[in-house]
Design a protein that fits this description.
22% strand, Rossmann fold, eight-stranded mixed sheet, zinc, 11 helices
């Protein structure tokens, strides 16, 4: 299903065949989910080179693979493997890839964000199949992990894992107090993962239903960020003296400011949600210097983060209501309705199921 521009419905495009080049893989998609950036694109809030196939959260099964393709764990990828793959493909050889920043590769390709082209039409998740390019991180997941849990891990889940890994470069989460602003997929997943690592987590979100959901994902306390004393009261209720980590997952400038203001001495602020233009913020550099505060931007992730997130979900997803996060599902041919449902914010994630379209082929 091809998006051709703001205000236009998706169009069906048939791809009669795919010829794989060295290092490439063809996957039949089992389920895709709608990320906020997909909504931002169709609303015109995020520039994109139409026509393109949106969607970058997915799970599927390998139906063809070139010789020598290997998963993140080093094992060969075989036809029949059930897999999740990264939202990007890097060259693995430029200076950024060699520095461990493949998500910022000099010749980066991003699934769900690239214009379709001859011999690479299956560029995103809102399709029956995906054509994976060389340099894509592939993680085999077996059969037990539900598709509703596996698909969002390709973006939000792996990004949450990456944020916590970057936090632990500065602060040991075991025994730390962590503030999460935004109870969407990333915030809820980070809450569950951080709680499992021994952190006491406070989740702030203006939506009461999201705050209730955060409790089920392990939050020790929840707060309404529109309440002037909400974050302070929630911290006091934990019995902890200060926030050691602040994770901002909504992109709201007010929430970014709250995260920076909330952390104590030696704290780390993780900015994850600011992936669309907003007004700039003023910072007090003296407060950051004297407080030994670290601010880290986390955008996407490295292959090891996707692998870590999937491994954690395989072991712990059943302890939290991850399956409930995909609370609406649409067939692929109703992708415009799925995007509208996602834009409403009623569901944390909306599923897009291509299997009816696959059966009709």
């Amino acid at each position: 299903m091809v998006w051709t521009g703001v205000g236009r419905p998706h169009e069906i495009v048939a791809v009669p065949g795919v010829v794989l080049a060295p290092g490439e893989t063809l996957v039949a998609i089992e389920l895709a989910t709608v990320c906020g950036s997909d909504v931002h694109t169709v609303e015109g809030r995020r520039p994109a080179p139409a026509p393109l196939v949106l969607g970058h959260e997915y799970v599927g099964r390998v139906i063809d693979v070139s010789d020598g393709v290997r998963a993140v764990d080093g094992a060969p990828v075989h036809v029949g493997d059930r897999v999740v793959w990264s939202i990007m493909a890097g060259c693995r050889d430029c200076d950024r890839c060699r520095r461990g920043l493949p998500q910022k590769c000099r010749s980066l390709l991003k699934y769900g964000h690239e214009r379709i082209q001859v011999h690479w039409e299956l560029t995103g998740g809102f399709a029956t199949h995906a054509h994976l390019r060389p340099g894509t991180a592939i993680v085999r997941i077996g059969e037990a992990l539900r598709a509703e849990v596996a698909a969002p891990a390709a973006c939000g889940g792996a990004t949450a894992w990456a944020a916590l890994e970057r936090a632990e470069d500065i602060v040991d989460l075991d025994g730390a107090t962590m503030l999460v602003l935004g109870a969407g997929l990333i915030g809820l997943t980070a809450c569950a993962m951080a709680t499992d690592r021994g952190a006491t987590v406070v989740v702030a979100d203006p939506d009461p239903s999201r705050r209730a959901l955060a409790v089920r994902f392990g939050a020790a306390q929840v707060a309404d960020p529109t309440d002037a004393r909400g974050l302070t009261a929630a911290l006091a209720a934990t019995g902890r003296p200060e926030y050691d980590v602040g994770l901002e997952a909504s992109g709201s400038p007010r929430a970014v400011r709250s995260a920076i203001d909330a952390v104590g001495v030696g704290g780390v602020v993780l900015l994850v949600g600011s992936v669309f233009p907003t007004e700039p913020l003023q910072l007090d550099p003296e407060r950051l210097v004297r407080g030994l505060v670290t601010i880290r931007g986390v955008h996407n992730y490295a292959p090891r983060d996707l692998d870590g997130a999937i491994r954690w979900l395989c072991e712990h997803a059943g302890e939290r209501p991850f399956e409930e996060l995909v609370s609406a599902r649409y067939p692929l041919t109703q992708i415009d309705q799925a995007l509208a449902a996602a834009a409403s914010g009623a569901a944390v994630r909306v599923g897009v199921d291509p299997r009816d379209a696959q059966r009709r082929r």
